[in-house]
Amino acid sequence: MALTTERVTDPAPPGFPDWSYAARQAAEAVPDQAIDACWRALNHLSAAQLYLTDNLRLARPLRPADVKETPRGHWGVCPPVNCMLAHLGPLTAWRPTGSELLVLHGAGHAGPSALAHAYLGGSLHLTGNGPSWSMPELRALITGFPHPERFGGEITPLIPGVRHTGGQLGPALAIAQGMALDAPHRLVVPLIGDGELETGATAAAWLARRALHGSGEHGAVLPVVLANGLKMGGPSLLAGMSEDDVRAYFTGLGYEPLIHDGAHLPGFRRLLADAFTRLRPLGEPGRQPVIVLTMPKGHTGPEQVAGRWIAGTPAVHKTPLKSPRHNDAEFAALAAWLASYRPAELFTTQGRPTDLVRQALPGPSPAPGTARPSAPLASRGPQSWPDVSAVIRERAANGAFRLFSPDEIASNRLQLAADGRLPSWAVEILNEEICHGWLQGYTETGRDALLATYEAFAPVNTSLLVQHLKHRRLRYLAHQGGLPSVNYLITSLGWRNTYTHQNPGLVSSMLETEDGFVHVYTPADATRAAAVLAVMLAGHDRVNFLITDKHPGPAFPPDPFRDELTDGAAIWPHLSHHGRPHLILASAGDIPARELTAAATLLRRSHPEIKIRYLHVNDLAVLGPAPHWPYALDERTFTRLFGTDTPVLMAVPTHPGSVRALLAARGETSRFHVVGYREPSRPTTPEGLLEHCGLSAAALSAQAALMIKEHSG
User: What's the cofactor (predicted)?
Assistant: First the structure.
């Protein structure tokens, strides 16, 4: 049953689409029978992908030979997802002029559903021959599932229309919010599994909407909770709540829950129309609608087979019938299941959806535009960069930009406005995952964003970033590159912080992925950091991490910086001798540069006869070998910088093991001595931590002298 709530709806602000228009027009233009036919078509295609090799329309009685030897895939989440897609199709087709409706799949296991929807929408091309609606295309879709080399069996951007790779588990609502920011024309509908409601990212995203109040003119988000009752292994926590408890839960979060099981199609259409009427911009105070669809997991599938109950059990999660080709009872259940959709009414003999099905389809959707500044901020010389804050302010002044931070903008000493206030384009919330979700959604829709955070807390997002790297990689393979880069500003470094705030682990994990999109920038001073940030914000198709100390430090001669920026590393002539060196000193990061340059001065005094070469590494990723690292130093440049047999002492701000791994992949092991963060056994002072790690100037000087002695001896 639907929850009915009478209220007076305030008028929408200027520029915000009249989404009730879509509901009115769709109700008049699209009959209920078309939506039912579309839902049945999606369900049939989803189930057929799991089970069939032939007889795709059931034009004749099903035979065991028509069934796959080993069914694979996920069925359970498909029916409720298909229900939403069928109902949203007409609303999308009749959306207001100039508006946009995006569906975001939080349920990663709904791959068959997304593929089926792409086929019905005419955007899926599998054979490369002829129209997208044809019997060869339909056969390729169904018999080729799970398409291990083409799409995979789950939600990925290799499937047309997919903007979020399922499997991140939790951030879909935050990503949808990020997509709607600064886009008043856009409505985003995230489909959220009830298992996802148990994740911290989803739980925090409901409350996170409050942080966006007064932060600009935004679009709308209509969350849809697929309250199907089951996770993979058993009942969800939401399933144990009464309807009154569910209402109270979402009401307490500031939402207006609209609850329905989807069984009565006209009633569910009216509920959706009510939700569209109640939509308001994301940043506007007051209650927002949330749809809670209580359709059971695996609905319309077999309920029981040979006395074995299937419906309402974890058996519906994947393939409810394990071996229907060889099991008579399962075969009979499969034949009845597929026949219940009456597929011959839904698809012509040419594989085309019938006219009735096509009435409920959304039609083509315009790709979101990319709004970026007309001139890259990195066009000036490095000498003219004042500081990181100025770069952020200048980028924000050009529009289509957001800064997200977990309550640390002031702590990180970022000056975003003259009066010290937080500008509308900067948002704080004490949650790393939400900040990442907002950034991911914002960049996914073509705008630039920056996440500024403490070094020690950034590793919370490791899993989200690894999954997003997979998403970016697949988008690139699908020729959907060109997105703005994902940018992290990592500051409040552990070298100056308390024991609990010491953890440079995020960039180590990112380097271990050996993903060519990753760049870990380690500039030597504040001026260089500002220029690097400008390059990051002007770029695309990268996942960038800028490590820079928030406290003022020494400034170094700017002359080598152009090479540091273009090659990733450069020799510092003012600290280097001419000719072949006895020792190479290499720094990465501002604190290591401060200590290693001091060590070089000490070494010159104690060993004036020793020739050294000093260089700085601006991007740790260039140390790895090609082809894993497409921006790697080529062998000629690497040899020019590091030589072939000269010992190298390298000081880095990260765990040294990740840098050693990059060098080892090049075949460099014994002559490189890498010094970096090493976990202390107890709290200590910043000076004590440097000593413990061997990163103080004195410790580095002593290590350098020892290496020279060992090499010459």
Answer: thiamine diphosphate
How is residue 94 written in tokens?
């009749």
**Spatial separation of the C-alpha atoms in residues 20 and 431, rounded to whole Å:** 34
Q: In 414-449, which positions are buried (b, 16+ CB within 10 angstroms) versus exposed (e)?
A: bebeeeeeebbbbbbbebbbbbbbbbbbbbbbbbbb
**Residue-wise pLDDT tens digits, 272-327:** 999 999 999 998 999 999 999 999 999 999 999 999 999 999 999 999 999 999 99
The percent of the chain in helix, strand and coil, each rounded to the nearest 5, is: 40, 15, 45
Helices (H), 460-560: 462-477, 505-512, 526-538
Rounded mean pLDDT of 431-445?
Answer: 97
Of 701, 707, 618, 620, nearest to 655 (Cα)? 620
- CB-based contact 18:184 (threshold 8 Å): no
The 3-state DSSP class for residue 3 equals coil
Pull the structure tokens for residue 446.
């073509």
Tokens found for residue 288: 């927002």
User: Beta-strand (E) ranges in 109-254?
Assistant: 186-193, 220-221, 224-226
Q: Which of 210, 209, 235 is nearest to 222 (CA)?
A: 209
Q: How far apart are CA 210 and CA 696, in angstroms?
A: 45
Per-residue CA distances from 203 to 171, 197, 464 (Å): 10, 6, 16
Cβ atoms of 590 and 524 closer than 8 Å: yes
Helix axes 200-208, 172-180, angle to 10 degrees: 30
Spatial distance between the Cα atoms of 637 and 642, rounded to a whole number of angstroms: 8
Dist CA 292 CA 274 (whole Å): 13
Q: Which helix (H) or strand (E) segment is 177 a member of?
A: helix 172-180
Nearest to 549 by CA among 519, 487, 485, 504: 504
The beta-strand segments (E) located in 475-571 are 486-491, 518-521, 543-547, 569-571
Place of tokens 């090799």: 53
Give 201: exposed, middle or buried? Use CB within 10 Å, 0-12, 13-18, 19+. Answer: buried
**How many other C-beta atoms are found inside a 10 Å radius of the C-beta of residue 269?**
19
**Which pairing describes strands 220-221 and 448-454: parallel, antiparallel, or unpaired?**
unpaired
What's the CA gap between 699 and 248, in Å, rounded?
A: 61
Work out the angle at residue 437's Cα, subtended by the Cα atoms of residues 248 and 530, and round it to the nearest 5 degrees: 140
Count of Cβ atoms closer than 10 Å to residue 497 Cβ? 16
Phi-psi region at 413: left, alpha or beta (left = phi > 0; alpha = psi -120 to 50): left
Cβ(305)–Cβ(330) below 8 Å: yes
- pTM reported for the whole predicted model: 0.94
- Helix H segments across 181-229? 200-208
Report CA Rg, the chain. Answer: 29
Q: Are 625 and 665 in contact (CB under 8 A)?
A: yes
Q: What pLDDT, in 10s, does the model give residues 541-586?
A: 999 999 999 998 999 999 999 999 999 999 999 999 999 999 999 9
Peptide bond into 146 cis (omega under 30): yes
